[in-house]
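Subject: for your reference before the review

Hello V.,

The reviewers asked for a structural picture of the protein, and I figured it would be easier to keep everything in one thread rather than splitting it across files. Below is the amino acid sequence we used in the manuscript, unchanged from the supplementary table.
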Amino acid sequence: MSRPRPLLLAAALACFASAADAQKLTCAIQPFTEPPEIATLVAQLRPALDRWPSLHVALYRDARALCLADTLHDVRGYFEPEGCRIVIAADMPPALQNAVMIHELRHLEQKFCGACPVPSLSMKANARAIFAMEADAVTYSLAVAWDLREADLPETWDALAHWPMQADIAAAFEAEMGRSNDLSSAAAAAFEQWYAMPERRDLYYTAACNDYLEARDREHRLPTYGSLAPDFFERLCRLPDGAAYDCAEPAG
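And here is what came back from the structure prediction:
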């Protein structure tokens, strides 16, 4: 009997999911006050939005649509870059929905900082970009969740710390905070830890390559062999306050 495929928390660029995967979508446009389900989703994120202006800007300036899906397969949320739409699974507790929302809002920010992969990249370079974007979004969401925990709002942190495919990253972040009490160092440790689980890398590599090939066929593109920009990682890795943190792929 085959082992069940792990359920990932979120996906960049809709690698694992699309609107077709959802049986039903309940959507809203700004200011996200109707329908009630979307208003509740935004209201429960209010503490994070109030503490981090970058999240507020991403949601209320850059997001064009926010949706709840009654059924998603493989992931709990995803971001569609072309339409700036975020889709979140409805069948989650509020704390986990908050964690996914923060993660996907970070992907939205990544689009506007120029980090999204471009069609000229090779398939391998595209996968490298997806890896880094996921590692950065996880790191960003952990930084926000840690701040909320320090403000006696631990639910989002606890949700991330107990999610099987992110628990090791949360542990690395927490261990470094305990050692150095330095957010940038903890972020660097979390980013590095993202690459440490082979199963996580394999899942994202397969999804990134499938998405890349499907897009190439759909758009009738010729094979491309471009590389990531030399400053890709420097532009990508930012904390919620905009400060840079050290990030790099592991050697090999």
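For the response letter, the relevant points are probably these. The first strand starts at residue 25 and ends at 28. The chain has one domain: 12-236.

Happy to draft the paragraph if you're swamped.

O.
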